[in-house]
Design a protein that fits this description.
Elements (H helix, E strand, L loop, with lengths): L3 E2 L9 H7 L9 H18 L5 E5 L2 H12 L5 E6 L2 H12 L3 E6 L8 H10 L5 E5 L1 E2 L4 E2 L2 H8 L6 E5 L18 E5 L10 E6 L1 H9 L9 H5 L9 H17 L1 H21 L13 E5 L4 H10 L3 E2 L1 E2 L8 E5 L6 H17 L8 H10 L3
Parallel strand pairs: 1-12, 3-4, 3-5, 5-8, 8-9
Antiparallel strand pairs: 2-10, 6-7, 9-10, 11-14, 13-14
Helix pairs in contact: 1-9, 2-9, 5-6, 9-10, 10-12, 10-13, 11-12, 12-13
Bound molecules: pyridoxal-5'-phosphate.
Length: 372
């Protein structure tokens, strides 16, 4: 039976990427691999909209979060983090693990932090060295206005703006240079459409300067080592080749078209779920993942999606466990995928006797997608 993945990482891998990765392994100290590395570097600049270096790490996304912290900060530095979900909470945990002074802005899960709240935190901690944000909070399905926050605080804040862009990069408009961000990280199994195992980290000139004075311990993730042209450690050759192909696809589509596609699919899914009588969760929704409150008999509904309709979606995490379902549209998705998941949701809703109008979800999504 064909199974379909609608999770916010891992995300589906395009056929051409799988074929690229199925080829025999090559050695990393070869002209072929150097060419691939150079191509990847160019693709990443486009993805992050930066003219600076974007470094590829062999790790999951959290490794790049850790690299961001250890390369730019020193023991005892004050930082501002935002707990509006599990991943913002992770910034706090990570910074505390390294002995930083953490001012954690608590935000009700399902809402995004505002520029005013960040401003108030800066008032409380005027010596803060970094503000750490989560562009798309995957645990709640909420997007943060990173551009607005950066714009609002920049006049008074010359520290580092560090962004977890793990489900935002490739899904939301992101202009690293123009928005004056310092560090943005993402992981390969999200908008980059390849399997888990690589992470990418963009740094501004301000952040590169910070790597020279930062005193937190680091070795494998020392970005100064990785910025040099020769390979310090063995790269994940196969994944790098897959990433080259995936970024070629994104370049061909056009990065602004990629953002627009994510926006359109997200709007279609939200319209479809609402039309089926599901209550959307949270405000300022992410373009990567849609959260909705579970219907009555929610556990059964989730089980049916997986076992009877063969679609894998994500459940709520921690405080949201048993309360929401999260459906991804991040990466390799198109209009037909949204109709497919809505069809499966409708069938499962019928099975748990959730009141709805048959076909209403598909009709509402089609109205957004167009093509009448
Ligand atoms: C997936 C995710 C992470 C964690 O990435 P890993 O690859 O699992 O380490 C961090 N932040 C966000 C917003 C994510 O979606």
């Amino acid at each position: 039976m064909r199974t379909r993945l609608f999770t916010p990482g891992p995300t589906p891998v395009p056929e051409s990427v799988m074929l690229r990765m199925a080829q025999p392994i090559i050695h990393h100290r070869t002209p072929e691999f150097q060419t691939a590395q150079a191509e990847l570097a160019e693709g990443l600049k486009l993805l992050f909209q930066t003219s600076g270096d974007v470094i590829t790490l062999t790790s999951s996304g959290t490794g790049a979060m850790e690299a961001a912290v250890v390369n730019t900060l020193s023991p005892g530095d004050a930082v501002i983090t935002v707990n509006a979900g599990k991943f913002g909470e992770r910034w706090g945990e990570l910074c505390r693990a390294y002995g930083l002074r953490v001012e954690e802005v608590m935000v009700e899960w399902g809402r995004a932090v505002t520029a005013e709240e960040i401003g108030a935190a800066l008032d409380r901690v005027p010596d803060a060295r970094a503000v750490l944000l989560t562009h798309s909070e995957t645990s709640t399905g909420v997007a943060t206005d990173v551009r607005g926050i950066a714009q609002a605080i920049r006049p008074r804040f010359d520290g580092l703006i560090i962004v977890d862009g793990i489900t935002a990069v490739g899904a939301h408009e992101l202009r690293f240079d123009e928005w004056d961000l310092d560090v943005v990280v993402t992981g390969s199994q999200k908008g980059v459409m390849i399997p888990p195992g690589l992470a990418f980290i963009a740094l501004s000139e301000r952040a590169w300067r910070a790597t020279e004075t930062a005193r937190l311990p680091r070795f494998y993730f020392d970005l100064r080592t990785m910025r040099k042209p020769e390979e310090a450690w063995t790269p994940a050759v196969t994944l790098v080749l897959g990433a080259v192909e995936a970024l070629r696809m994104l370049r061909e589509e056009g990065i602004e078209n990629v953002w627009a596609r994510h926006d359109r699919l997200a709007r279609a899914l939200r319209a479809g779920l609402s039309a089926l009588g599901l209550k959307l969760f949270g405000v300022s929704p992410s373009n990567a993942v849609t959260s909705a409150e579970l219907p009555e008999r929610g556990a059964e509904f989730m089980k049916l999606l997986k076992e009877r309709y063969h679609v894998t979606v994500a459940a709520g995490q921690e405080a949201l466990k048993g309360r929401i379902v999260r459906i991804a549209h991040l990466g390799y998705y198109d209009d037909a995928d949204m109709l497919t998941i809505l069809y499966a949701v409708e069938r499962a809703l019928a099975d748990v006797e959730h009141p709805h109008t048959p076909g209403a979800g598909l009709a509402a999504a089609r109205a957004v997608l167009g093509g009448e």
